[in-house]
Amino acid sequence: MSDSITERTPPVIAVEINMIKQQTEKVVLNNAIEIGRRLKEAKDLIPYGEWGKWLVESVSYTERTAQRLMLVFDAYGDQQPATLNADAQTLRLPNMNYSQALILLEVPEEEREQFIMEMDIENMSVRELQKAVKERDQAFLDREQAFQDRDRAQQEKADLQKALDGEKGTNTQLIKERDNLKTKAGDLQKSKRALEQDVEKKQLECDKLKEKTSYKSVQRMSDSLTVAYNKVAANKITFLYENMDKAFKELAYEMTKFASIDPDVHAAYKKMVNDFLIKAMQERMGG
């Protein structure tokens, strides 16, 4: 057996199968791009409303499948020659298959080339590529969320600073109002003391006036009572005098009558009356 013949082992066979798979998948992607190119060309020529019918009757495609193939062409069509017989060595497509190409459509066009350069597409399975795209999308969302959180935090900070500035202005105004109130309170306290002093002064004047008025009233009342008392006393004296005069006249009349009856007794009573009158005048009337 020749030494140039490689021994056929399962690992060797697996390598050959994988190479054929890669070549087949590459051809599938290239063919998908060319089909998408021609579908776009046909769509521009078919009357409006006939597109779905033409796809089913002419190429056995659904509109969804046709749309996906045209998207593949839009994404990768400018990276390969426009002829089916072009040498595979001239293709500028990344070394990926049709399924990977569809997955990469989820990456925005402006970021797709950079993403492909960063990923080892050739050695990644479809599942690994899907995971990488999802992680990229999640990272993008996380970054966008971080930007939003940052912007929100900055806005909240600005709002807080604005609120603090407003509070400072409010506090300054409140301090001014407080100082004004203190000044007014001091003025009111002074006014209160002045009013209290004025009230005390008026009260003293009132008390003095009351005392003065009461004294005069009492004095006038006393004078009136004295006058009234004197008048009563004078009236009493007049009354007594009149009674005494009447009684004396009656006594004198009776004694005159009695003088002719019994002169001695008359003389004795006359002396007794004279002595009584003299003594009464001296003792009781201060004569």
UniProtKB/TrEMBL annotation:
Domain of life: Bacteria
A family per Pfam: DUF3102
Residue ranges of coiled coil: 143-212
Keywords attached to this entry: Coiled coil
Keyword Coiled coil: yes
InterPro entries according to UniProt: DUF3102
Protein name: DUF3102 domain-containing protein
UniProt organism field: Desulfosporosinus fructosivorans
